[in-house]
Specification:
5 helices, 9 strands, globular, single chain, 7-stranded antiparallel beta sheet, 192 residues, alpha+beta, two-stranded antiparallel sheet
Length: 192
């Protein structure tokens, strides 16, 4: 069964105000997440633009749907991999020595024929491989099955059901634990 939400919590040895700034300031967001035209204003429609996978549209359409400065922020998230908008919610909690930031990304349901199809490409399966198609231009490679003498890879529908969740969770995890922390530490160093 597919998980309905990605939930991550990270502790930062920084004040809630500084953490809030990094998730709501357009320039800071661009430093750790993606280019954007975000404004912390209820109802504001904005976009993120990134280049994560070749051939996929990196535009993410969003709208601020909840704002409680500096404690909570929610916005919709509609990218080319999703059949319906998802919701990203940030919750900041002051704790001893810093801030606990919680991310909840709800509603990951990949659009059939986009991410599912991408994850089903023959190159993803052990029984398939790249080969030079004799009928194609020498500079163009196509995906074709190589079936002789190979054992097919066991495929389960749940493999792609969770691929979107896995991709998003790993991407968020990296951004929160590494990139956002780097921006926070740079801000602190500039102010010291």
């Amino acid at each position: 069964m597919r998980r309905q939400a990605i939930k991550l919590q990270v502790f930062y040895p920084h004040t809630p105000e500084r953490v809030w700034r990094v998730i709501t300031d357009r320039r800071a967001l661009a430093d750790w997440l993606m280019d954007n035209d975000f404004e912390p204003r209820l109802g504001h429609k904005f976009w993120f633009r990134g280049h994560t996978l070749p051939g996929l549209d990196g535009a993410i359409q969003c709208q601020v749907i909840a704002l409680d400065m500096p404690k909570r922020l929610s916005y919709t998230w509609q990218d080319s991999l999703m059949s319906q908008p998802t919701v990203v919610t940030w919750t900041l909690t002051p704790v001893a020595g810093g801030t606990r930031l919680q991310l909840e990304h709800q509603g990951c349901k990949p659009e059939p024929n986009s991410f599912d199809e991408l994850m089903r490409l023959p190159g993803r399966q052990a029984s398939r491989a790249w080969y030079q198609s004799p009928s194609s231009n020498a500079n163009i490679r196509t995906l074709e099955p190589i079936t002789s003498g190979t054992q097919p890879f066991s495929y389960r529908k749940s493999d792609t059901d969770s691929s979107c969740d896995f991709y998003l969770e790993e991407n968020w995890n990296y951004k929160l634990r590494h990139r956002l922390l780097t921006v926070l530490n740079s801000m602190a160093a500039e102010q010291d």
